[in-house]
């Protein structure tokens, strides 16, 4: 089951639906960076290029969980 979170990105309200396991990893990344959930989503949005936001979130979570090295 997906869990939705809402955020304003570039002045537009949007929501992201991810599995709770991905949110748990993203919450850890946000805490490590001293960011709010919204702050992390804004950062992901700014660095994702043309990739869909949900995909960029999942890939960041996988990268962080798998190797611990985030190259962005």
TrEMBL record:
This is Ribbon-helix-helix domain-containing protein. It holds the Pfam family RHH_4. It comes from Brevundimonas subvibrioides (strain ATCC 15264 / DSM 4735 / LMG 14903 / NBRC 16000 / CB 81). InterPro entries: RHH_dom (IPR027373), RHH_sf (IPR038268). Residues 3-64 form the Ribbon-helix-helix domain.
